[in-house]
Amino acid sequence: MTRRLSILPATLARAVRLVWLSDRRLALWHTALIVLQALLPLGSLVALKQVIDRATHLFSSANPDPFTWAGAAGRLVSDAEFRLLAIWLAAGAFCLVLAAAARLLVSWVSEFHAIAVTDRIYDLLHGALLRADFAFFENPDSQNRLYMAREEALDRPTRLLAGLGQLLHSVIGIGGVFIILAGFTPWLPLLLGFAALPVLFFKLDRTRRFYDWRKSLTPLDRQASYFHAVMTDNAGAKEIRLYGHGDFCLNRFAAARARLREERVAWRRFVLTREALGLFIGLAVTGVILLWMTSRLLAGAVTVGALVLCVQSVQRGQHAVTALLNAVSALFEDALFLQSFEELLRQPARVGAPEHPAPVPDVLRDGITFENVSFTYPGRTEPALSRLSFTLRPGERVALAGPNGAGKSTLVKLLCRLYDPDDGRILVDGTDLRAFDPQTWRRRIGALFQDFNHYQLTLRDNIRIGHPETPETSPEVERAACDAGLGPLIKSWPQGLDTRLGRWLHDGIEPSIGQWQKIALARAFLRPALLTILDEPASALDNASQREAFEALARLSRGRIALFTSHRHLTPGMADRLLILRDGTLAADGAPADLAADPLTGGLIDLRPATSSL
What we know:
61% of the residues lie in helices and 10% in strands. It is an alpha/beta fold. The strands form three sheets. Strands 6-7-8-3-10-11 form a six-stranded mixed beta sheet, with helices on both faces. It has a four-stranded antiparallel beta sheet with strand order 2-1-4-5, with helices on one face. Helix 5 runs antiparallel to helix 10.
């Protein structure tokens, strides 16, 4: 119990800080309106008591004057008791009207405030993810936390804001009701408070279980979401129709959803039994207080107005206590989101910039040297790379070959400084790569990865994001497009470089996979790079396009380093030098023709002449 309560202040502080920093002006208005909304019903209760008592006194005397609308104006002047009745009636009506206006204003302000909180959450989340190490995206536990934050980023801010508002409203309402009830006898607010303790225990136990229950279901929820995406995304539509595995995916999705449904039904059963017990306790307390106040009324100790005030206060107090407990319970549920969210924001940077980073050279003189570099992925035991030593010299076109799993993509990640070596060093003109700011170093790398993105943008923007500093009207964009073999395509498309690509966001042109790869290649060519890395650059290109791409690479690599990976097939002239990896080690380093003729390495590479494309 103590442990559960101990997280409440920290969670409340996180929530208040998030809400306050989202928009301070809206937060102040929202708070003021909630306070006003909580106080006005108490004012209407006090006014109601005074109206009932004074009306009872006026119209239950020995010779009461009958009320008429015609005589009301005169009685307001001549009858002080009637005037007080009218004043209290007007005050009660004013409180009711003002309370209704406050509800409308709270609804209006809270909507804009929720938008501000949502925007801040997205800003923080996107900023954290853009700064996060690449290892974060390859870690399943990190992806579970990201899934929870991403799934709840849309509606959780609204619930969080409503919960904080309800918490403040309930605390003020309970305080006012307890003051009113204490006026009758001190044990009334104590009874109401003690009656809430069992419900508090139930709700805290529920929230603790919810925290663990929700975390345990996240992998299953992700599994259901994955198969839903496979069946609904454009990427899998062709294979599902060709291979007919839609039912397979549907069954996997249905199985995951069935388990989720069973868990949720069991959870609701657990919650409802406890809520029913809390409702019974509340009704019992109301009955006891009503019986006591009725006996006091019959004994002449209290007035009818006092009885009405007490009963109404008890009911409002119970509603306020219930709302407070619900708000506290919701705050514990928010702790799951807030904790996961803050864990995302506080991701440790394993690949960071030193306090005083060294300047990245404008031109390479000696090249890039691997000195006994070894690397093992986090959570793995087998090294992906082991004691690699070689030098990439300026002006070279280097092919990196080897079978699947040899370590080619891992070597590329180290060059891009997505990871740092566990042992050894990578030197750039004699300076350790870790001495550079990783962002500054990456700005000098042009890369085409195997899993390149298909951006739903214009062709111009698809290329420009390779170097966002390039002006929209710069001729460099078209130059990079032509270097990548997109010249004829630009002329054939209706808006040229401004043609919209993809059909997800708009009715654009859907390029072929080979055309998409050329676009990704153009992004790499646009970048003013010291190092150009092409990971399987010809996997989707025909022979003519492949030849054009490597001719462009030869032109662009003067004074720079060009590195591309391949599994086996090389065309003469594609590379000046060949590195062959096997099981994470350097199996061979030399001229492609020499290594292809070597019986020890020839089986790992296929040097074949270029053939014309059909």
